[in-house]
Every structure is written in C-alpha cells, then in structure tokens.
C-alpha cells in the first residue's frame, strides 16, 4: 500500500471531471485474544512457560524501556507471542531470573522488529536468541520505503497500529491498561508479518542475504563510545579546549547524578545548559545561576557541583585539556582526501557511485549493501596488488575482516576492485582555453 499523493490549491480538480473516490482508512489493529494480566508471580510465569514450550513455531518478542525517564536501558516490560500459547506480558522487574522463559523458548526462532534496540536489554535478564528474524531489517533488504512496524503492518497486512503510547514511562507501576494493550499489539501480528516477508525475500532472491544478516545480529553488542561527552549538543560551537574541558567535567558530573538517581541525564540538566556554562565559565553559584541559558530541573539544586566541575576544568594544566577533535583509527574525512591523497579521492568517487548504482538496481538501501565506513577504509588503504583477479580476492578478504557479510562481499568486491584500479589512473588535464585572437594583451 502506498500513500496517496497530497493535493493542494495547485492540484484543483478540473471542472466536469468525476471526483476521485475516498481511499478508506485501514482498520485499526485489535487484540485477537483480549488483554491478559501482566505476569508478575512465579506461578503465572510457570504456567505461561509450560504453554510456550508446548506450542510450535517462532516466538515474537518485544521489550519496552523507559528511555527519556530512566538512566538505564533495562526492560520494564517484555511481550511474547507464540501461536498456540497466546500473548504474555511479563514484568521483568518482579523476577530475579527469567531462566524458565529462556528454557521454554529453547532454540525456537525469535521474531523481533529492530532487533538491535532490544537485544541488549533482553540479554540483561538472561534471554538470548539462538536464531532470529528481524522484520525491520527484512523490510530494508526488500527495499520497502518505510520500515517502521506500523508502516509494515499497514502495507503488508492492511491494519493500522496505535502510536499514542510510544514514548511513555514504562517504569511506572501499575501500568495503565491502554499502555498494556499498546504493548501487546507490538507482537500481535509479528508471526503473520514474518511469513509474508519470508515469501517476499524468496521472490526477490534475498533469502540468503537475510539469513546472513540475521546470523550476524546474534553477536550484536552495543557500541561503547569513546569520549561520550563529545555528543553534548552544541559542543561544535565552542571555542578553545578549556571550554571543552568544562563540557567534559559538567557531563561527567551530570552522568554521576543521573546514574545515582536512575533518571535520564537530560532531566537533570539539558545539554544547552552545559554549553552555556562552558562558554561563560562562572566560578561562583551566583554567577552560574545568572548565566543566560543555564536552566533546568537540577540547575539550582546541584549548583555547587556544577561550579565545582567548572573550577576543575579551569584548574587543569594545558597538557591535560582534551583535544579539539577525537582522533579515530579510521581514515580522515573524505572531504580532505583530494588534498591528502588524490588517488584515494578518485577511488572513493568511483567506488561510492558504483555501490550506490548497485544498491538502486537491487532495491536495497546503500548502507545495507555495504557499511559506508567499510567502503571508506577499503578505498583509503586498498590492497597493493593490481592484478584484477588477485585484487578482487584481496578486496573481499579486507571487507570480510571489517565485518562485511559474504553476500555483501560477493556483490561489492568486484566494483571496489575496479574503483581501486580507476583511482590509479591520472585524469587527463583539461586543455587550456584557445587564445582569443581579438585579445591584444
């Protein structure tokens, strides 16, 4: 199903033409079995685990976190559905261990949507898949224009999903019934959706692509960021390393407070207040609270700690100040390649365009065809051989060492080998403009 084009004053219907029929809105998705009570006792968990183990087929799983409210990314509700066992809403906070749930699932395939969002918090409570199917990733590989769960459900199943409780505080107890209905609906049709996507993957010849991608997800771990304080919004506007040191000290203080209170850091002090203090560098409580832009729930409450953090930055020796930019282990920014290594710039231009063209041809997002960082690393420092057959093999091995899957290597290695060879060819200089015979100078 595709969205109908919007109309406006310039799209007025011509006189005498019949009116276009109204497109009926897709019916709202409803729970087939009604809402079941939240599982929060060992007896209730044992009963559902018995039903789950006796049922067949894949298990749809989802988790709700309290992002924007709590410091941690722990799961505050886990939803499961298996044909023959029905839907369960499990409160993980009520249990020391969910080992019985893991045992009941066994080696059944998990169905998740956007698996990387939930795998870590599910692992925290002892739930680990041995096989999985990611409906969002399948949608990407199939080239669907929108891959959110609601969009896929409407496109594939002709049903609308509720969206009004997507950003609520799932750590609240008891959870309101409308929230629980919303959560249960997230797994209501995952089994059916998976079946349709499996057929579509087969039709497009992408079943093996998906298998490799899903297998790769089994080893997923969240990226641990170096210098996470650099993600404070507005840091790029600051001048001087002393101001960066203040951002670092304020961010660290805020993080400590947020962790202790189990609240999201932005609810303690917004990024904009950190930037305001780093620019002004106030050394007294009065000066800090008078700083334009320094506000937030914890601005006054923790004022002494903010001043202490600023003073810490001011007292640092010059050699201890943070670098202006974080030096990574990868290549320099592509915009600098033309000056640093013109051949690399030529390789990148050719390789980028070739991969983009292939992605369009295969109806897959370019970032799913090949991770952009892999492409940059390969073309900045390619294999030395220039024998094409050897080069294709060496490029494939290098991509695989970064983490590219075999299907990605098979499709892109020949293109990138050609890009390496093209980069070695100096372009012909543009001919000088012909002399103007009327120019007497």
Q: Any idea what the CATH architecture of the largest domain is? A: 2-Layer Sandwich
CATH secondary-structure class of the largest domain: Alpha Beta
Strand content is 5-15%
Number of strands: 5
CATH superfamily of the largest domain: Ribonuclease H-like superfamily/Ribonuclease H
What's the N-to-C terminus distance?
Answer: 68 Å
CATH fold descriptor of the largest domain? Nucleotidyltransferase, domain 5
Radius of gyration over all CA atoms, rounded: 28 Å
**Helical stretch tally:** 19
Count of the separate structural domains: 3
For the largest beta sheet, what order do the strands appear in spatially?
3-2-1-4-5
- Could you say which overall geometry the principal axes of the C-alpha atoms support? flat
Low-confidence stretches: 1-17
Overall mean pLDDT score?
Answer: 92
Q: Give helix and strand order, one letter per element, not per position.
A: HEEEHEHEHHHHHHHHHHHHHHHH
Task: Give helix % range.
Answer: 40-55%
The biggest beta sheet reads:
5 strands, mixed
Q: Return the structural class.
A: mainly alpha
Which characteristics define this entry?
47% helix; mainly alpha; 3'-5'_exonuclease_dom; 441 residues; 5 strands; DNA polymerase, domain 1; 5-stranded mixed beta sheet; Nucleotidyltransferase, domain 5; 3'-5' exonuclease activity; HRDC_dom; ribonuclease D activity; 3 domains; RNaseH_sf
Describe this structure in words.
With 441 residues, the chain is mainly alpha-helical. The protein has three domains: 42-217, 2-Layer Sandwich (Nucleotidyltransferase, domain 5); 228-320, HRDC domain (DNA polymerase, domain 1, Orthogonal Bundle); 334-423, HRDC domain (DNA polymerase, domain 1, Orthogonal Bundle). The protein contains 19 helices and five strands. The longest helix has 21 residues, at 241-261. Residues 1-17 have low confidence and may be disordered.
